[in-house]
Amino acid sequence: MNESKIILCHEDYQVLKRLVDSFARTGRLGQPHFDRLAREVRHASVMDREAIPPKVVTMGSTVNYTCVETDTTADAVLVFPASATGGEHRVSILAPLGLALIGEREGTEIAYEAPGGTYRIRINSVKHAPVAEPVG
């Protein structure tokens, strides 16, 4: 994850803030990945969904990336923890890859720590999830 502020829409910010608050209540803050998410949410730049730049990874984005070491390409859909199961390519914001992707931009190369070591990936493309049309 880069040193700049992550960009979140108001709705995603509220969900992530509640998640971080629940970590604090249950004593899970103090674990590196929870602390990292708490720090990122606390310093996030929050804006309307329509104002978020199209090439920035946000919640719900589909990211195509290449593993630098193996030159293999994969897709990831960045999701909240409750949505991480039951779908292909879903990556939780709490997973090392999810934390590394949030706020990054298309075209950047990043390194992140995960079980098994340090991994380097290049972000090839970012597609935002379509916004649901209002009903009625």
What is the residue-averaged pLDDT?
Answer: 87
Total of helices? 3
C-alpha geometry: globular
Strand order of the largest sheet: 5-4-3-7-6
Characterize the largest beta sheet: strand count, sense, and whether it forms a barrel: 5 strands, mixed
- Name the CATH class: Alpha Beta
Could you give me the name of the CATH homologous superfamily? Answer: Transcription elongation factor, GreA/GreB, C-terminal domain
Second-tier CATH architecture: Roll
- The third-level CATH topology is Chitinase A, domain 3
Radius of gyration: 15 Å
Residue stretches low in confidence (pLDDT < 50, at least 5 long) are: 132-136
DSSP summary, beta strand count: 7
- Give the amount of beta strand, in percent: 25-35%
Summing up helix and strand content along with how strands pair, one would put the structural category as alpha/beta
Q: Can you tell me about this structure?
A:
The protein has 136 residues and is of the alpha/beta class. The protein has one domain: Chitinase A, domain 3 (Roll). Helix 1 packs across helix 2. The longest helix is centred in the first third of the chain and has 17 residues. The protein is globular, with a radius of gyration of 15 Å.
Can you give me a brief rundown of this structure?
By secondary structure, the chain is of the alpha/beta class. The chain has helices spanning 10-26, 32-42, 96-101, and strands at 7-9, 45-47, 62-67, 72-79, 90-92, 109-114, 117-127.
